[in-house]
Every structure is written in structure tokens, then in C-alpha cells.
Amino acid sequence: MNKRLRWAGSLLAIGGIVFVALGLREHAAAIDLTRIGSADWLMVMGLALVYGVASLLLALGWWNLLGQFGTRLSLGWAIRVYGISQIAKYLPGNIMHLAGRQTMGMAAGVPGWTLAKSAVWELALIAAVGALFGGLALPLVVEGFPAEAGTALFLGMVSVAFVLVWRSAGPSAARALVAYAVFLAISGGLFVALVDVASAGFEWTGTLLWFPVVGAYVLAWLAGLLTPGAPAGVGVRELVLLVLLKGVIGEIELLLAVLLSRLVTALGDVLFFGMALLGDRKSPRQGA
Fold first, then answer.
1. How far is CA 206 from the centre of its chain?
2. Model's pTM, two decimal places?
3. Beta bridge partners of 249
């Protein structure tokens, strides 16, 4: 069954890549990269740097989860292990980063069961928080639904989730939830900025508020994360974005923003990997 799921996920990823490629081919003449000036490219590079730094929040969440299960470790060591292993998400299967983190942790003397539980909790919390961003995206799928109501619904659900996790699991798990929520919000905000770059001044007026677009991006990111066999969600994320934002943003501008988004996240992951290499090489034990 696992093998079939991975194959299905891989086929979905390939289908998404083909779908995007066909769209690019259809609009190749209209997509003019020369209209993106040097200042815009500097902005894209800056957004990649922001994404790389924001990825530290993922390591912070994992560090909190390890502490939740009674394993207090150095934050610098956790960032190093998380950042180095995270680059493996681009390998086929979409699970190699988890396996790498498990291996590196056990080699450093961290209990294997603690590492396994932290990975499960991480996926569960990220999936739960990512799903809550669907409240922001409701104006895109429910005609006439106010963006302000979607934002209020999202904030309310996140607050309730924080309280529930704090009371049922503990403060460390609740802090991990907040770290994941902030990371996803930043990621969505970066995509909004890229839409602005791609469209040379997108008008965020009326129903075209940026909060629903943030929600759409996070849902697409989550779909890519949870699809087995899709390395780093390649193809799946792009496909979901094109479906959710079709008719909201011009198709040409959306295709260009999707391409720039993949560039930003890939460069950001490389930067995060570089920062992790400079991290704490000492014993993972706190204070060691």
C-alpha cells in the first residue's frame, strides 16, 4: 500500500509539472522575463534570504517537540541537524529528510523513539495549522464570502488550536505550533510579494486582498508536503495554486509568480542548509 501511495503521489507530481509546463508553453510568448528589472531580481534574492532565515522556525518547532518528550538539547545542534537533513526533501520519496534526521539524531545519542515521535508530531501540527489557513482562502472558493470574515475565522481557529495543544500536550508543543504558523504565514507573504513582482504592481483591492492568496499558497504547500512520492511537493504545489487562483490573478502573472516562488524556496533551502553547516557541532546535550 505504501508503495502504491508513493507511485500515486509521484504520478500526481508529474501530472502537475506537465500541467504547468503546458501552461508555460501556451503563454511562452507573453511571459517576458525581461520586464523583471534588476531591482526586482534583487528583491527575489532578498525574499530567498528571508525564506532561508524563516526556515529556522521549523528547526525551532522540532527543538520544542524534542523537549516536549523529555529530551533537552542544544538549539544550535537542533538547527544544524534539521537544516542539513531538510535538503534531502528534494530526493524522490519525500521522506528522506525525515530518515536523515532520525539517523543523525540517533548517531548523536538521541533516543530513536523520541526522534520518531517528534517527526510524527511535527507532521501532525504542520498539517493541522496548514489546514487552518484554509479559513483565509474561503473567499476564493465561496462566492461572496468576505475576506475579513475569513481572516477573523483563521485567527480564531489558531487561537483555539493553541489553547487546546497547550492544555492537552504542553507548552513546548504549543510553542512549536506557533513556530509553524509563523513560518507558513511568512511563506504565504513571500508569495504575495512575488505576485506583485510578476504582475508589476498587482492591485490588492476589493475582494483581491492578500490574505486569501496567503491561504491559497499555504494550502498548496500543504498538499505538496503530504503527497507521498513528490520531492519537495514539486508539481503538486504548483497545480493546486493554479487551480485555487485561476481567475483571481492573471494566468500569465500567476505562472510567472509560481516559477519565481519555486526559485525562492529552492534558494532559501540552500541558504538554510549553508547556515546549518555552520551550526553547533558539539554534543547535542544542552549546556554540553
1. 27
2. 0.83
3. 246
